Amino acid sequence: MAATLQAIDYSILQQCMHCGMCLPTCPTYDATKRERNSPRGRIALMRAIADGGLDVSETFADEMSYCLGCLACQTSCPAGVNYAELFETARSHIEQTAVQPGAMRKVWRAITLKGLFMHPRALRLAGRVLRIYQRTGADVLSRRFGLTALLPASLRRLEPQTPAMGRAFSPALVAPHERPKGRANYRVALLTGCIQDLAFADINRDTADVLLANGCAVTTPPVQPCCGSLHAHNGERELARVLARRLIDLIPPGDFDAIITNAGGCGSHLRHYAPLLEDDATYRDRAHEWDHKVRDVHEWLMQIGCRAPLASPFDAPTPVTYHDSCHLVHGQKISTPPRALLRLVPGVTLVDLPESTWCCGSAGVYAVTQPDQADALLRRKVSHVTATGVAVVATANPGCHLQIARGLRDGGHAIRVTHPVSLLAQAYRLERASASAQGTP
Ligand code: SF4
Ligand code: SF4
Description:
This protein has 25 helices and 9 strands. By secondary structure, it is an alpha/beta fold. The strands form 2 sheets. It has a 5-stranded mixed sheet. Strands 7-6-8-9 form a 4-stranded parallel sheet, sandwiched between helices. Helix 13 crosses helix 25 and helix 21 packs parallel to helix 25. The chain binds iron/sulfur cluster (SF4) (2 copies). One iron/sulfur cluster binds next to helix 3 and helix 5. The site of one iron/sulfur cluster has 15 residues, from helix 3 and helix 5.
């Protein structure tokens, strides 16, 4: 993978034939109707930079920051433009030219991308501190007494949106090695993620339970490095390469039938370690094997023939809708398996969500860098969810989960947000409880 637009395989830039089929699917073009805010416009800018006709400027950096990286354009493009590669290369090029000013931006990137998200133990320590801050009510007091006014404007705005830390992190809920009752048909490794681990470790527990119920022996290393998705999307390609090597060392792909991820954003990046490490002779072959083994949890469960649970997590038939995470549907082309799994859960009535593949505005750090556009997309998503009349919305990415839950909460809507595997896990647990109450083994 190239680090600058001048070094990129030029044929990728030439793929765009300017047809405009992607324009109606692009949320930023939809918002402004300006060519430069469209995929076609951005690709033209990138090509001009690659040709040497344009310098990387602050205006170009702003344009690439306005792009969500949602990859809806990639799905709709008849020419198969690899926008993911273009997007990551453009952002990497921007970071190398340092055209974006702001000391705070540098400090913030140093703390997060170069600090916390490079060191999983430090990230968990920060998570613990945040949990104490939230559980003691110090967050509410800080807001009431105006202490949050001391934060920089972007962080001040973001502070109330900080995800609630889970009651425990993954190692407290998932053992390093777990075996199914009866024969293990598959050996899988479970990736616990970063935000998923801090805010939704219970979803990792649910994922392990569903895998166990379907004959998988599950290995879950207690301390896992970040997958590097956040780094690659934000122009830190070298750090993404370091993290990819660490993860391959920790979870040798040859030891497993599948490497499971339950987060759409991580999965989209995790499946592309081979191009990231193509010039690394030590890791190249293992990176190819890694990409071959990575599976989104829904995809894997459908591949091995997921068993329908016998119990329902609901007392009565319940309408449930599904929001597609951009990087699951556009980045990985996975849309049928999560819906098929939801249909397996007794009591679920699946309701179509209009514009289910339209970005909710989460998009990594987009709420920090582009808060107005992020909020506009969230309002649009919430209005569609509420119009369905459902009681539950399922989605498979922690960013979308947090964003939609915030939008529903702020709007006063009592609609629960969950992960598809959590509904399955609940159903299997009730099935087990009912079987043991009846004395069935
Ligand atoms: S990634 Fe999303 S926001 Fe960016 S150009 Fe493509 S469709 Fe538009
Ligand atoms: S759909 Fe593809 S080929 Fe057509 S303008 Fe958009 S990116 Fe270019």
